[in-house]
Amino acid sequence: MRTFFLPVMVMFIFVLESIIVDLVPIPFLSDHQVAVPHLLLLMIVILAAYGSRKIAVIYGIVFGLLFDVVYTQVIGIYAFSFPTLAYLVMQALRVLNPNIFVLIFLTELSVALLEFFTYGIYLLIRMTAVPLQLFTIDRLLPTLALNFVLACVLIYPLKKFVLGLKIGEHND
Amino acid sequence: MPQFFLNKRLIVLLVGIIILVALIGFSLKEDRNLSWQEKFIQDSVGLVQKVFHQPAQYIAGFFENLNHLKNTYEENELLRKQLNNYIQLEEKLQELEQENKQLKEELKLSADNDIRKYKSIQGTVIARNPDRWHDYIKIDKGEQHGIKKDMAVITAKGLIGKVKNTSEFTSTVQLLSASDRKNRISAMVHTNNGKVFGLIVGYSEQENALEMNIIESNAQIKENQIVATSGLGGVFPEGLVIGKVKKVELDSYGLTKIAYITPSADFYDIDRVMIIERVLPTVDINQLEEEEDS
């Protein structure tokens, strides 16, 4: 019964991401700077750390595909990168101790990887023509800053939520 | 070498990359309509989005109103001044409209074939693309409400974009600020000596303005002149306001002019939109070619 809450929660985060971008003005940003809240990625990182590895990868594929179909309309980019990042995070946590600081660091790292990956693909298929320098200043740095704040605020409650579901292989 | 093929992870990764490339190739096909699976996902997710987005919009609207309350007095003064002008303007408009009607009757122009006429469908925004690479918004009206691909979408302030694709109950709108070179709109500038036609070819990130190519290199275009759709592209009606000219430059070859246009609509604060259906039927180029062939 408890595992029923997980898809509802992830779906809520999926919708919330769009609502934040649409309705919440993000402070300290100039006109052409863009900050993207990667809440879904944060949730998948936490699932990989505290839930089970299988569930993290499956949720990565399903919600990545949903993200592609509903929002970006270029199918494949997020459906590929979410599970890959979940897998990489799990590999990293084999050597690292999963405390909150390590998780914040891993989230930032996966956000940066995701941004570079999407930028690379869009550059390749000519959906964007932004030069690398502009991309770094106008998009990557604000996004990393925003996700740092989001991760600091949300990691603890989301960790409690995932551990409360008792799906993990290694409950601590 | 056999060990190379036994590595399960590597094979999964390779298969993943192959599927990725195939799917991207599939979704980049020109003039692709959504498959029924995608339509089904769009519709069912759209339902969830609608449930969450509307209360969120009320809350955001409440905070916005609080912000507006701060400078109500100054705004009120300004509006009172403008209201006097407005009444005069309205009188003049009525006069001109009547004159226009009379002249048209004298010329026996029928009103049905007017390229300016349109029907509008009201819609509400239910989502926005969170990865901000493409500026897409999703609205709560779809094929069932009569929306078709490539229709113009406006707010009260002006043109914001066109319908990119539709599902049964929702549709995706590509905003003018999206950096898509295929997103071209036939437009015109109202100058002192008549209309000057051109083509809006995209959004310039550096200028924060729309880029418009004008072929007449001796056209007298000045700042603050109004730009509207020309209706010559075949899908949009004539006369939807796009924005004002910000500055004019010669292009790198010195043959055509590039006008930068500040859009009159706000692309970030969009709540309610109108989808525009032109009354004059659209000419299908493919059909024309077939007729010419036969």
Automatic annotation (TrEMBL), chain B:
<dbReference type="GO" id="GO:0008360">
    <property type="term" value="P:regulation of cell shape"/>
</dbReference>
<dbReference type="InterPro" id="IPR055342">
    <property type="entry name" value="MreC_beta-barrel_core"/>
</dbReference>
<dbReference type="InterPro" id="IPR007221">
    <property type="entry name" value="MreC"/>
</dbReference>
<keyword id="KW-0175">Coiled coil</keyword>
<dbReference type="GO" id="GO:0005886">
    <property type="term" value="C:plasma membrane"/>
</dbReference>
<keyword id="KW-0133">Cell shape</keyword>
<comment type="function">
    <text>Involved in formation and maintenance of cell shape.</text>
</comment>
<dbReference type="Pfam" id="PF04085">
    <property type="entry name" value="MreC"/>
</dbReference>
<comment type="similarity">
    <text>Belongs to the MreC family.</text>
</comment>
<protein>
    <recommendedName>
        <fullName>Cell shape-determining protein MreC</fullName>
    </recommendedName>
</protein>
<feature type="domain" description="Rod shape-determining protein MreC beta-barrel core">
    <location>
        <begin position="125"/>
        <end position="277"/>
    </location>
</feature>
<feature type="coiled-coil region">
    <location>
        <begin position="69"/>
        <end position="113"/>
    </location>
</feature>
<dbReference type="InterPro" id="IPR042175">
    <property type="entry name" value="Cell/Rod_MreC_2"/>
</dbReference>
<dbReference type="InterPro" id="IPR042177">
    <property type="entry name" value="Cell/Rod_1"/>
</dbReference>
